[in-house]
């Protein structure tokens, strides 16, 4: 990377690290570099074209390979939560801000993040249907059951019983927040969307501690 | 019959998935009954037999068109009966190989045609029409009838039915249905009888090897009617080697190896069954089976098939329970010694036949020998002392179970089949139930949830582990659950989690261990899997910083849970040692400075538990923990105060510790604790600490500043024994100071103290006699004791079985006799008292011997009593003891000998009994008390010339002359007197020689 670029990155890092809570300036700088590395890789659906940001496919690869996520729907939702302006690409700012919560978020931040992931249509509520959708493959179907979806429906009811404090048949953010504060395990109630401590550590080590590459 | 067929018949699935009736004895029996029913119906109820079925019974037959003759339209491939139903359909239709039949009369005719193949035909028919009753009567009719009371008459039933489905031949239909039901019951009853008869022969179905006839016994023994051999080890008798034979069961000589024919010999009478045998052989079993049988009388469900476990239950007439069966099947194979070991089913456990208490059932296969005996397999047979195996409570009737039970069962199903997300969600839902409630705990167990929860601990999913532990830590407050968790190896997994980097997990795991390690086997498991080391590691944190970061706060919580776990584990001696070796003591000492009660309680709890070991007592003192313990005596938490006092109680045996308690001003708070008289545990600990601390005189003086004695005397009444032991112990120490003796009297302490002499608690009696003795040194106290007949009470304690009580009582008698008015008269008035004293000289306990010698010396001051003692043969008994090397005994023995010389020819009797020479040796003992009493005794003995000769010969003069130089005047005098007597004799001797 040229000296010119380096300068640009440093200014950018300084800028962004002021807006992001959990990364220092050097860490931000490393993340920017990582971002550019990602950009250089050919885009998954438009090979050869310079992309305006990290696209869904690349991002999904990271989620899958670095953080062991498997659920496509959840991964898409994570991308959507990162992609604040909804343009289908993660800008460098979106990338760093997203990772800030993803890797080092406080409980409050993570509650907000998870709620965003689970609110599939973005209407501010996690509805019965959305829960059903997310839990659809969480149980082994018993072939003997009359209604194979019965277990899933039951799980949805269990979730509602546990978290729907205002009894309106759907989860508002307040419902979700209250439930998670009472029992932290409910943070990822509808699917894994946060990294575990080990993969976080591995990822941070590889990005922040890798020797300068230029 | 429908119910019967599904319930009783032994259906098996073949490869193609359809149900088959296997050719078992039971099924044969059933088929015959069904056939019989069909035939009987035709004969006895011809009208009903023509009733047309709702649907035809269809199956594939072996009959061919040619078999049908009169009454049938027979064409090439088709047979139709002449009889038709109202709509003109034939009642029997055969299109080989498929046949359909629509009435019992046709069915009966058909079976008649089948001739030799009737049973096969019935079998095919039943297999083809599993829902027989519904086909014959129609589903709605059956469900209606099932709801109705069967005992109603046919008419009223008819009215009801007609409202529902108007049809002409309802009456016949009902009648047939009722007949069928009646038959159903009959068969069932016969079946039961059949099974019970069978049970005498089908003893044991499972084993390593089995002959085709189902026997385990070797062939040549089978000729004698023997079936198999069982080895049982009940808790209250020796191992029983049992032979089960056609005639019944009996004990054999112990079949251990092949070829030892003598082992098979019958050595008991023949009992009807195993239960009867055990009832005769094991009282514990007999007592428990009684209550079992009473309970089981209310069971309704009949036994339907026979297995090993079932057989046992059958004998007890109990209902079959699938789970028990599993337990019996859960056997451990021990290849090396070739035996198959069966764990007894829960019901047997209840009867005291449990492996954990040394019970095991072993089937001996004929071809091998028993290498390992049960006791080796279960080395810890008698160890489960603190948690008795409780009889398992079982819900007898499922309908009584609350809805939570079923909800939890459903959740367990989701746990079994869910991915991580579903699992976590389900675990969270489970936490919402009241997991401390037994119903919920048993629901989880019954649904197999424990297995799932334990399996989750071995996954990599942190959230699942957290959820699982959050449930396990609660439900393991149930003793049964704890045991199951340990049996399943769950505790090992929990111990492993202690290494996790996730702090929440570590804390939860430690908390779970704290709750599970309530019994010995669990504590041992923790230790054997390195759990103690890991738990000690958890203690490392900085507990007393003013402000803690979130991280440090978590560390403190982890340490707290670690301390809780260690507290539970520290109940075992080996674990105490392990904690010490893992470096736990300094860490506990550091946590002791924590400002938080919830941290301090487990820490002090562990320390006081461990203070039973000397290494800990020393460490507590040298690591400066006494100060912290004293500080926390003034906490406002009763439990914490109790543990602190208890720790001081155990440590204050040591003088330095006692001084430290005083130095850190711990005596006053201890006295203050006496105010909390309602908390008996706390009171016991506080009085214990006061007792031990008061062993130091300086402490007694300090205690008196706070009027401790007055309060303690007040605690002599209406207290539990744990408190009384300590209170009286403290009184005994306080009464060593003479001023306190008067205070005890003035506070009215003598009467309750003497009252306690009639108790039975030996620890208490030791302390009471000591206190009474101490009080008796005061003349005014003695008067009260005498008045209350206290001396007689103390005297009678010499008959106590405990040597400690005997000696303590004897020591107490000395001051009593010394200070009583008319002591001699009083002693004589105690019938048999002197004889008792003399006999106790035969005790082998040195302390008893010494104390009795002291009593003898005291009594002998009265000449009359000395005469009685002499008559009872006290002299040779005392002389016999002289060879001792114990200085304490020597002192009192010499004393007793000295005093006993005062009567008759006792001096020469001692000489004859060769008591003098050993006494001379006592002069060289490095104990001035021994020297003194020996000099006195020798002085008395030297009044007999023969004794003087012995003394002179044994070289007594030189040490006696040395003793004459002592500071003690009585000693000087005695030594000088003795030397004088020896000298006078020598002189007289010389003079006699000179003049003759």
From TrEMBL, chain A:
Statement: the UniProt record of this protein carries the keyword Metal-binding: yes
Keyword flag Metal-binding: yes
Family annotation (Gene3D superfamilies): EF-hand
Residues annotated as domain EF-hand: 70-105, 106-141, 151-186
Taxon lineage: Eukaryota, Metazoa, Chordata, Craniata, Vertebrata
Single GO MF descriptor: calcium ion binding
SUPFAM superfamilies per the UniProt record, alphabetical: EF-hand
Parts of the chain that traverse the membrane: none
Gene that this sequence comes from: efcab1
PROSITE patterns with a match to the protein in the record: EF_HAND_1, EF_HAND_2
Protein name, as recorded: EF-hand domain-containing protein
Keywords: Calcium, Metal-binding, Repeat
Automatic annotation (TrEMBL), chain B:
Positions of transmembrane segments: none
PANTHER family: ARMADILLO REPEAT-CONTAINING PROTEIN 4 ARMC4, OUTER DYNEIN ARM-DOCKING COMPLEX SUBUNIT 2
Species of the source: Gouania willdenowi (Blunt-snouted clingfish)
Region (Disordered): 375-400
ARM repeats (start-end): 489-531, 832-874, 955-982
Signal peptide start and end residues: none
Protein name (Swiss-Prot/TrEMBL): Armadillo repeat containing 4
């Amino acid at each position: 990377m040229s000296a010119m670029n380096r300068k640009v990155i440093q200014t950018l890092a300084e800028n962004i690290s002021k807006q992001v809570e959990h990364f220092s300036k050097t860490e931000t700088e490393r993340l920017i570099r990582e971002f550019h590395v990602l950009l250089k890789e050919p885009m998954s659906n438009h090979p050869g074209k310079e992309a305006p940001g990290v696209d869904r496919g690349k991002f999904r690869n990271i989620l899958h390979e670095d953080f062991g996520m498997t659920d496509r729907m959840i991964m898409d939702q994570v991308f959507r939560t990162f992609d604040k302006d909804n343009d289908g690409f993660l800008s460098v700012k979106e990338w760093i801000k997203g990772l800030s919560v993803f890797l080092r978020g406080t409980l409050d931040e993570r509650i907000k993040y998870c709620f965003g992931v689970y609110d599939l249509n973005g209407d501010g509520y996690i509805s019965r249907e959305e829960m059903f959708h997310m839990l659809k493959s969480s149980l082994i179907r018993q072939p003997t059951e009359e209604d194979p979806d019965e277990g899933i429906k039951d799980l949805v009811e269990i979730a509602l019983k546990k978290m729907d404090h205002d009894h309106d048949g759907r989860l508002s953010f307040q419902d979700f927040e209250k439930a998670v504060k009472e029992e932290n395990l409910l943070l990822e109630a509808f699917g894994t969307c946060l990294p575990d401590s080990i993969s976080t550590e591995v990822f941070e080590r590889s990005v922040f501690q890798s020797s300068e590459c230029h | 019959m429908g119910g019967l067929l599904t319930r009783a018949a032994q259906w098996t699935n073949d490869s193609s998935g359809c149900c088959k009736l296997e050719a078992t004895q039971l099924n044969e029996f059933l088929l015959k009954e069904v056939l019989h029913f069909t035939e009987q119906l035709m004969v006895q109820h011809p009208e009903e037999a023509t009733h047309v079925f709702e649907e035809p019974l269809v199956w594939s037959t072996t009959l061919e068109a040619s078999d049908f003759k009169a009454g049938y339209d027979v064409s090439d491939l088709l047979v139709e009966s002449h009889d038709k139903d109202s709509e003109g359909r034939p009642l029997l239709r055969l299109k080989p190989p498929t046949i359909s039949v629509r009435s019992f009369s046709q069915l009966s005719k058909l079976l008649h045609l089948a001739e030799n193949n009737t049973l096969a035909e019935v079998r095919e028919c039943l297999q083809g029409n599993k829902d027989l009753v519904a086909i014959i009567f129609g589903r709605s009719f059956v469900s209606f009838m099932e709801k109705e009371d069967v005992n109603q008459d046919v008419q009223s039933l008819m009215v009801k039915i007609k409202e529902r489905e108007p049809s002409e031949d309802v009456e016949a239909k009902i009648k047939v249905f009722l007949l069928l039901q009646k038959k159903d019951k009959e068969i069932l009853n016969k079946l039961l009888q059949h099974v019970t008869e069978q049970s005498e022969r089908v003893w044991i179905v499972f084993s390593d090897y089995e002959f085709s006839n189902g026997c385990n016994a070797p062939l040549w023994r089978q000729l004698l009617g023997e079936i198999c051999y069982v080895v049982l080890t009940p808790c209250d008798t020796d191992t029983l080697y049992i032979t089960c034979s056609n005639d019944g069961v009996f004990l054999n000589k112990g079949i251990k190896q092949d070829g030892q024919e003598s082992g098979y010999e019958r050595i008991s009478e023949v009992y009807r069954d195993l239960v009867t045998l055990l009832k005769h052989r094991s009282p514990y079993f007999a007592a428990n089976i009684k209550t079992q049988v009473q309970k089981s009388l209310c069971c309704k469900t009949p036994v339907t098939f026979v297995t090993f476990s079932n057989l046992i239950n059958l004998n007890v007439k109990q209902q079959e329970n699938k789970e028990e069966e599993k337990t019996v099947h859960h056997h451990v194979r021990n290849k090396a010694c070739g035996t198959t070991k069966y764990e007894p089913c829960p019901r047997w456990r209840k009867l005291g036949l449990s492996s954990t208490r040394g019970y095991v059932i072993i089937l001996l296969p004929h071809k091998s020998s028993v290498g390992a005996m049960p006791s080796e397999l279960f080395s810890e047979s008698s160890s489960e002392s603190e948690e008795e195996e409780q009889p398992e409570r079982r819900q007898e009737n499922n309908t009584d179970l609350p809805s939570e039970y079923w909800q939890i069962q459903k959740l367990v199903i989701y746990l079994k089949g869910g991915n991580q997300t579903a699992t976590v969600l389900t675990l969270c839902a489970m936490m919402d139930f009241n997991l401390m409630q037994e119903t919920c705990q048993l629901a989880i167990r019954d649904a197999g949830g424990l297995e799932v929860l334990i399996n989750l601990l071995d996954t990599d999913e942190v959230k699942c582990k957290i959820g699982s532990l959050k449930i396990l830590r609660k439900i393991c407050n149930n003793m049964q659950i704890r045991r199951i968790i340990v049996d399943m190896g769950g505790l090992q997994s929990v111990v492993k989690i202690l290494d996790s980097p996730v702090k929440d997990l570590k804390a939860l795991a430690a908390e779970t261990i704290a709750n599970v390690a309530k019994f010995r086997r669990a504590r041992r498991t923790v230790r054997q899997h390195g759990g103690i080391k890991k738990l000690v590691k958890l203690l490392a944190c900085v507990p007393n910083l003013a402000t803690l970061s979130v991280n440090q706060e978590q560390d403190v919580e982890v340490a707290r849970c670690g301390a809780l776990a260690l507290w539970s584990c520290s109940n075992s001696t080996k674990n105490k040692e392990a904690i010490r070796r893992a470096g736990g003591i300094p860490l506990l000492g550091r946590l002791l400075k924590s400002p938080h009660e919830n941290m301090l309680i487990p820490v002090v709890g562990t320390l006081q538990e461990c203070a039973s070991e000397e290494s800990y007592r020393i460490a507590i003192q040298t690591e400066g923990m006494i100060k912290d313990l004293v500080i926390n005596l003034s906490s406002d938490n009763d439990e914490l105060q109790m543990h602190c006092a208890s720790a001081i109680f155990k440590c204050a045996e040591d003088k330095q510790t006692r001084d430290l308690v005083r130095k850190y001003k711990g005596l006053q708070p201890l006295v203050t604790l006496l105010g909390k008289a309602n908390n008996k545990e706390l009171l016991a600990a506080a009085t214990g600490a006061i007792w031990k601390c008061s062993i130091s005189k300086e402490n007694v003086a300090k205690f008196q500043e706070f009027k401790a004695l007055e309060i303690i005397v007040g605690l002599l009444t209406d207290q539990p024994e744990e408190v009384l032991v300590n209170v009286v112990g403290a009184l005994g120490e306080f009464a060593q100071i003479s001023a306190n003796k008067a205070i005890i009297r003035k506070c009215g302490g003598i009467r309750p103290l003497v009252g306690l002499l009639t108790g039975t608690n030996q620890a208490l009696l030791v302390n009471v006699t000591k206190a009474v003795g101490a009080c008796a040194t005061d003349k005014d106290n003695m008067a009260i004791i005498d008045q209350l007949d206290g001396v007689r009470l103390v005297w009678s304690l010499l008959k106590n079985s405990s040597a400690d009580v005997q000696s303590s009582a004897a020591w107490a008698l000395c001051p009593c006799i010394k200070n009583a008015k008319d002591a001699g008269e009083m002693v004589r008035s105690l019938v048999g008292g002197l004889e008792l004293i003399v006999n106790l000289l035969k005790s082998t306990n040195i302390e008893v011997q010494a104390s009795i010698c002291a009593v003898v010396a005291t009594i002998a001051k009265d000449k009359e009593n000395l005469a009685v003692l002499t008559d009872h043969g006290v002299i040779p008994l005392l002389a016999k003891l002289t060879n001792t090397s114990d200085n304490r005994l020597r002192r009192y023995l010499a004393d007793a000998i000295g005093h006993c010389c005062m009567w008759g020819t006792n001096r020469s009797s001692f000489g004859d009994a060769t008591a003098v020479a050993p006494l001379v040796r006592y002069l060289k003992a490095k104990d001035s008390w021994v020297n003194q009493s020996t000099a006195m005794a020798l002085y008395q003995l030297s009044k007999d010339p023969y004794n003087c000769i012995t003394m002179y010969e044994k070289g007594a003069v030189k040490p006696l002359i040395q003793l004459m130089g002592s500071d003690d005047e009585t000693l000087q005098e005695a030594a000088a007197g003795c030397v004088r007597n020896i000298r006078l004799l020598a002189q007289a001797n010389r003079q006699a020689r000179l003049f003759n």
